[in-house]
Write a structure and sequence with these properties.
The complex is a heterodimer.
Chain A lengths: L4 H24 L16 H6 L5 H34 L3 H15 L2 H15 L5 H24 L4 H9 L4 H30 L2 H6 L7 H10 L4 H27 L8
Helix pairs in contact in A: 3-6, 3-8, 4-6, 6-8, 7-8, 8-11
Chain B lengths: L1 H31 L17 H4 L5 H33 L3 H11 L6 H12 L4 H9 L12 H25 L4 H8 L4 H12 L1 H16 L3 H6 L7 H11 L3 H33 L1
The chains are: A mainly alpha, B mainly alpha.
Chain lengths: ~260, ~280
């Protein structure tokens, strides 16, 4: 038993290290004092400040972030599901190339994706803004959705399709009534992952954004960089945390079930 | 023939999207690096090696070296911390394993910018940690916790640690812990048994963890920008400066290609070792 005492000690230190900044941030969002070094009593004034007219741009940024996340997760759900099916059902040279190209956006540093896309868009003379952010987000989200849906397909019982075909079901009926319902939890989980990745992204968005198209991470970044309104950042970060936890909790619930257990 | 048609229908949309917005831009970057830059930050027609020659400027090799050094230290520390944690998590059974694993992953869900921002707020000259350290007398009144290499390293370790723990845990979960008892029975000390039996046993996980930390660390930009000082710049900061502030797109392209070449090294190492292992097991 002695041998596990050192790892247990390291683990507890690491957990403190991992949670300390986040906890302090949440606690400080309720701190009356402007600086985190003293506790000035409980307050909700930083949250109230979020509602001020002068912080309207924060809400605009939040709205834009959510819209881009919704659109990019929607598109990448379609693209990711199609490519996962292609990778799962076919074993050709084309699929080997497809596999390599799909995995690259996951491995390559996001900075490189951002800069190459920016150079390309500038060379084409495209106006930068919400549209280009959307394109960039779909480009890295599609690969992640593919991986999640591919995982779901691995537990797929091919006999169901064969049985449906024997019973005379057409291709569209098989897709609509069998494949899509069976894959649905994987597609939704992939979509939620895409949503969180899109909301989380700073680096790629920073490169492909245009004037007036600020997202929430960009906004928070510039506030932090200029050490402006630090307590307000605490408050908005806490709200952001709650949103992320809700989404992750939801996607965990969806992926928990085994593919064969919730089949119709 | 209809099989082939179905395959193409399924493959084409995503592959075309990635071809247009990922593969072609990567090649475009290569082309832009040979273009002359003009004073307005635009690209002129014609071909030149100016941007490539500028890589020899005394500034860039120092920044490249610092990028590699900070990333390697981050990777080494993350692996050193993750190894005992994975050892423990792999050994635990039942409920506790799940709970502790969850506890390790949860901070990872937090927005990346917010996690880095949290450190900046805590380490702020008026922030809590500095005030505590001052009161205890551990630091001098003129010591800053922010804007130095130590802060960059610590936050890099903070953000990358889960990337090291998860693959190592996955490997430790499959490790047969009775092998350690066998080594102890044969007279090896506890530490020696871990180093000679457990570490080789999870070598695949170590390799994955190494790549998953090293690759994003090399592309760091946010962390040195928010918690580092002017002398802690990494190549990512230079790329951003050349793209937006002091605009020179061909220069940004050559710097990005230099970063790409450096990140390809760990990717290739993992790829080659995996292929060799597959060949050996056949």
């Amino acid at each position: 038993m002695k041998s596990s005492r050192i790892p247990a000690f390291i683990l507890s230190l690491v957990l403190v290290f991992l949670y300390l900044p986040i906890l302090l941030l949440v606690v400080n969002s309720f701190n009356e004092a402007r600086y985190s070094s003293t506790w000035g009593g409980f307050t909700l004034k930083w949250y109230e400040a979020l509602l001020d007219r002068q912080n309207r741009d924060l809400w605009d940024a939040a709205q834009r972030t959510l819209l881009i996340a919704l659109a990019s997760s929607g598109i990448s759900m379609i693209l990711g599901t199609l490519s996962a099916c292609a990778l799962h059902w076919y074993r050709s040279r084309l699929q080997r190339i497809n596999y390599g190209i799909l995995y690259l956006p996951i491995v390559i540093p996001d900075l490189l994706m951002g800069i190459s896309l920016l150079l390309f868009l500038v060379a084409l003379g495209v106006t930068l803004g919400s549209g280009t952010i959307l394109i960039a987000h779909v480009t890295f989200c599609a690969s992640f959705v593919t991986v999640v849906v591919l995982g779901r397909l691995q537990g797929f019982d091919e006999n169901v399709i064969a049985a449906a075909r024997d019973l005379g079901a057409s291709k569209w009926v098989i897709i609509r009534r069998i494949i899509l319902p069976l894959l649905a939890p994987g597609i939704v989980a992939g979509g939620l992952l895409a949503f969180t990745l899109s909301v989380d992204d700073y680096v790629i968005t920073f490169f492909v954004t245009g004037p007036g198209s600020t997202t929430l991470p960009l906004k928070i970044y510039s506030m932090v960089k200029h050490s402006k309104d630090l307590p307000i950042i605490n408050a908005i970060s806490t709200l952001f945390l709650i949103l992320t936890f809700l989404i992750v909790w939801l996607s965990q619930r969806l992926t928990e079930h085994q593919p064969n257990r919730d089949s119709p | 023939m209809t099989q082939r048609k179905n395959e193409i229908l399924l493959t084409a949309p995503t592959l075309l999207w990635l071809a247009v917005f990922f593969v072609i831009p990567s090649f475009a970057m290569f082309l832009v690096s040979f273009r002359p830059a003009n004073a307005d930050g635009g690209i002129e027609p014609g071909w030149t090696l100016d941007a490539w020659r500028a890589l020899g400027d005394p500034d860039y090799p120092i920044i490249l070296w610092r990028t590699v050094w900070l990333s390697v230290v981050t990777t080494a520390v993350c692996l050193a911390i993750a190894l005992p944690i994975a050892f423990l998590l792999g050994k635990l059974e039942g409920k506790w394993r799940g709970i502790l694993l969850m506890l390790v992953i949860v901070p990872f869900w937090t927005n990346f910018v917010i996690r880095v921002a949290a450190w900046r707020i805590i380490l702020h000259p008026e922030g809590m940690i500095r005030q505590v350290l001052l009161n205890v007398g551990l630091i001098e009144p003129d010591t800053l916790l922010l804007y130095n290499e130590g802060a960059v390293l610590m936050v890099m370790i903070y953000t990358h640690l889960p990337f090291a723990i998860l693959p190592l845990y996955a490997a430790a979960e499959r490790f047969d812990y009775s092998l350690l008892e066998a080594a102890r029975d044969l007279g090896a000390s506890g530490f020696r048994a871990v180093m000679r039996v457990f570490v080789p046993g999870v070598s695949r996980g170590l390799l994955t963890a190494m790549a998953l930390v090293l690759i994003p660390a090399l592309g760091s930009y946010v962390i040195p920008d928010l918690v580092g000082g002017p002398s802690d710049e990494m190549i990512g900061n230079k790329i951003a400066q050349r793209t937006l502030g002091n605009r020179n797109l061909p220069q940004a392209a050559t710097l990005s290609l230099a970063l790409l070449v450096i990140t390809l090294i760990p990717i290739l190492v993992v790829f080659l070792i995996n292929r060799k292992e597959q060949a050996d097991s056949r």
